[in-house]
Amino acid sequence: MKKLLLFIYTIVFAMNMIPGAYAQGSNEEKGDGVWLKDPITDCGIWNSEPKGNETISWSGSCDDDGKASGNGVLVWLENGKIVGRFTGTMAKGKAEGRGKLYFKVEDGFAQYNGDFRNSEMHGRGVLTFPDKSRAEGDFKQDEMNGYIKVTIADGRSYEGDVKNNLPHGEGHQITPEGEEYYGAFVNGKREGQGTLLLPNGDIYKGQFKNEVAEGIGSLQTVQGDHYEGSFKAGKPHGEGVYTATDGEVARGQFVNGEPDGKIIFSQKNGKTTEEIWKNGKKVEL
């Protein structure tokens, strides 16, 4: 357990959403870390990241090997100041089962309340920071893995699948700017099939790549215009069909969001015309 790190992963559109944390993880088999001992009881606690100025206090019992065992309170101190406290069950000097961990961060103390295994957050738990940012869900070996619900104090949120502390799979994301996304994520980025509701009321449904609309999709504007076809870097690009609010339909090539090339226009009365456009402007022949 010891001191949990304080970092927030940056997701799409500057979406800070997942605070990660690690406890005093079990790297004993790798030779990392040391056994710290309570100076009064001589009871041992495993510490994977020792510091020369760190001491501990354990209120519970010791097993026959002199390691912390059973229920109790474990306190970490650095230079005599408390930097963390664990209340729960220890087995062979490591946190095991349900427990509550407080740990010092830059602006106060954060808290993890949940399952531990080998002194790692492992199972179901809730992670809360001083500014009320909160993550609740599945943890595995000190990382968020599984299904997580995260809310950040500034209004950001994410609920869905997570792998190694990042959105990965299906999820629902809200940004402070008012964007709302439902769909697929890969390694923390919008990628695959999804639906994006923009703050101005526009709606995009379709494929995403590297956080932006790319591939086949459709865009419905709040004014009633509609585009369906290829997108690249978040803009119509390639073959597509644009339908205006007055019913006029334009079919053809689009480049960087503008008609470019041969465009066939169809009026509501059935009349069709063929025009050449360049950079969003009609070319007069």
What does this structure look like?
By secondary structure, this protein is an all-beta fold. The chain has a domain at 1-145. Helix content is 0%, strand content 65%. The relative contact order is 0.09.
Question: What is the strand and helix layout of this fold?
Answer:
Elements: E1 7-11, E2 15-20, E3 34-37, E4 44-47, E5 54-58, E6 61-62, E7 68-78, E8 81-91, E9 94-105, E10 108-117, E11 120-128, E12 134-140, E13 143-151, E14 157-163, E15 166-174, E16 180-186, E17 189-197, E18 203-209, E19 212-220, E20 226-232, E21 235-243, E22 249-255, E23 258-266, E24 272-278, E25 281-282
H/E series? EEEEEEEEEEEEEEEEEEEEEEEEE
Distance between the termini: 74 Å
Tell how many strands the DSSP assignment holds.
25
Q: Determine Rg (CA atoms, Å).
A: 27 Å
Oligomer: single chain
Name the structural class: mainly beta
Key terms:
285 residues; mainly beta; 21-stranded antiparallel β-sheet; two-stranded antiparallel sheet; 25 strands; rod-shaped; disordered N terminus
